[in-house]
Amino acid sequence: MIIMKFGGTSVQNEAAISRVIEIVRARLERKPVVVVSALSKVTDLLYKICDEAAARHTEQAKEHIEALRERHLGLAEELLSGTEFLDEAYTKVDALCQELDAFVHAVCVVGDLTPKSRARIISRGEVLSSTLICYAMNARGIRTNLVDAKKLIITDDDYLKGEPDKKAICAAVPAEIEKAYRNVEAVITQGFVSSARDGSTTVLGRGGSDYTASLLGMALQAEEVQIWTDVDGVMTADPRVVEHPVTLREIAFEEAAEMAHFGAKVLHPMTIEPAVRLGIPIYVLDSTHPDSKGTGVFGSERIPDGIKAVSSKENIQVINIFSTKMLGASGFLSKVFGVFSDHKVPVDMISTSEANISVTVDGGTDLSAVVAELSEFADVTVDRDKSQISVIGKNLHAEAGLFAALSKALGPNGIHMISQGATFINLSLVVDRSICKETVRLIHQYLFENHA
Length: 452
Description:
Structural class: alpha/beta
């Protein structure tokens, strides 16, 4: 059994979905479980609907829902015209949109958009796309069952970023998939969508469809997890920043996890962990070129040492925490990071000295509460408009010339912070945001292109 996840750009229109169906058809003998995202840009539209509902803008919310309805009904016509499935699909899609409209109207009337209500709204994109694609697969001769992801992916009650209950998932998924696979050739479900233990809708957070795929792979002990996107695998840098990045044909689980965490857009940061647990290979593949090899993500033992990629997070903040109470004191670090934990603010990089701790967080994070609490026992400053650049690869400490290349790339520009992971998988720098892209290009040039 294999897991095949298709992102929003891979299911954005009739041509893309037709390609997806043929990709699945070529792999039917491997019993695919297909995971789909919402159509491209639909989740963004659903977030706008949430904003209009919170502001009690009933008419604007209704206009957005009508645009959503027209897009999906138009796609149903394109995919299913002339087939026996068109009327049923049209009715189902229309009903799903009408339900959404009624729910959003109720939120507008009450004027209180709770996290629980927001999750219910933003999950509708995957429900619509999976419904349409299931009908299309059946119409084109692939007997397919649709499974509600809420029966498969169980989380806590953090509605907008559910923490998966892996034990519950492993208990539920095999039986549900086995039942769904009776008398069919394929099974399809939603990415991103999950449920709390009481059945309420939760979601896994933006980009969570990859995580769904990996969790299903873990629960089913799948042969492999395939992440189908619109690029040919994992590259040495973001092609939107670097003109000539190279596709990496094989990388280690640990390297892929670091790339995802430190800014690479191809894999969701949480995707790797469930697969690593059972050593399940992950393949990142291009749905627009199904015959391309893409990138395989494997156990570390088969991957050579060396630099694999340069990635970046363009917008971060650096929090500097100074206190003489750190000197010789036990428990100070625990106290500091307890504040971040209490406010659910994730930290990326950490650097410490005798009396100072510096950490980085996402640039969009509201730090007012964290800074206020830290300021009760330390001097705190926040540096904004910074970027994080990371060089990633196995055993970087043994890589001759790395620091020389970084020094050349940075030139006279200052480094605000530097950190190397204990496992020597990444070396990260904090620089001014204004020089981020150019610095990434120069680092990539020194590390990769000069040796091409």
